Every structure is written in structure tokens, then in C-alpha cells.
Amino acid sequence: MNPQAGSPTPVPPPLKRPPLAVPLWFGMATLALLVLGGLLVIYFFDPAATALYPGCAFHRVTGLNCPGCGATRGMHALLHGDWRRALKDNALVMLTGVVLLARAGWLGVERQRERPVPSLIPTWSLIPWLVLALVFGVVRNLPMGAWLSP
Fold it and tell me: For residues 109 and 28, what is the distance between their CA atoms, to the nearest angstrom?
């Protein structure tokens, strides 16, 4: 209370700060620049001929190919237009990339049509993809699946 007037002192309303929202275009542009930078490095520096890239720890320890072995070499081949070599180096990663690009395109169309857009990678698809990666990793190390090894 205000002792001079005998009435309560008014309390100012709390300050409202605007939310720190990053525009969608800024996030997409940043992601695109990062991906482009990574692709340029892979394009200009051949993974088979340079020590720039780390080796696979699983392969180093066990001598077996993990589901990701050959992915960087495959991406290098794909960027140079050799899709057959890319599939030979790592078919799982190349086909997963195609599926993700197709889904991203579809989601972009849905966003343009102002429809609700789900996530790029649905939660329900993670377990089947992990099982597929595990089977791919086992089969590529068997004699019958040697054609899947880089």
C-alpha cells in the first residue's frame, strides 16, 4: 500500500518478450550450405586415395564390413556419375538416400499445398530400417553376399 494515499500501488504487467524463433528459411539455408560443403569435400577428395576421412573402427577391429562401410566411397562415385560403383560400395546407404530425397520432395509439395507435414523420418520406420541394416551388415560378410561388400 502507498502510505501517503492509502491505496495499493499498481503492479505493472509482466514484460512479454517476443519468442526467439528462427525462420524456417534460415534453418533450411544453413542445412543446405552444410550439406553442400560436405558434398564438395567428398567430390574433390577421393576417400580411396586420401587419409582425410577416418577409417571404420568396426572394420579395423573385426576385419568385417559394417552396414556403413563404403558409404563415403559410394557417395564420391555417385557425385562423379558412377551410380553402379556407388551401389557396389554401399547399396543400403545409396537406396536410403533415394528414399529420403523422395520423401523430402513429397513433404515439400505437401507444405506448398499448406497441408499438415509429418516428420521426414517417421518413428515407426526406425526399427524396420535398423533390422534391414543389421541383415545387410550380416549378409554382406557372408560368401553368398560378397557382391554387397565394397
Answer: 15
Q: Which tens digit of pLDDT belongs to each residue from 42-80?
A: 999 999 999 899 989 999 999 999 999 999 999 999 999
Position 43 in a domain: no
- Cβ 81 vs Cβ 101: under 8 Å: no
Q: Is residue 77 part of a domain?
A: yes
Alpha-carbon torsion, ordered 107, 110, 116, 121, to 10 deg: -10
Instruction: Note down the domain range covering 59.
Output: 54-148
In this predicted model, what pLDDT tens digit does every residue of 95-110 receive, in sequence order?
Answer: 999 999 999 999 989 9
**Identity of the residue numbered 35:** V
Give how many domains the chain has, as a whole number.
1
Q: Are 47 and 55 in contact (CB under 8 A)?
A: no
Query: The whole model's pTM is what?
Result: 0.75
Write the CB contacts of 25 (distance below 8 Å, at least 6 apart in sequence).
none
Q: How far apart are the C-alpha atoms of 138 and 145, rounded to whole Å?
A: 9
- 91: helix, strand or coil: helix
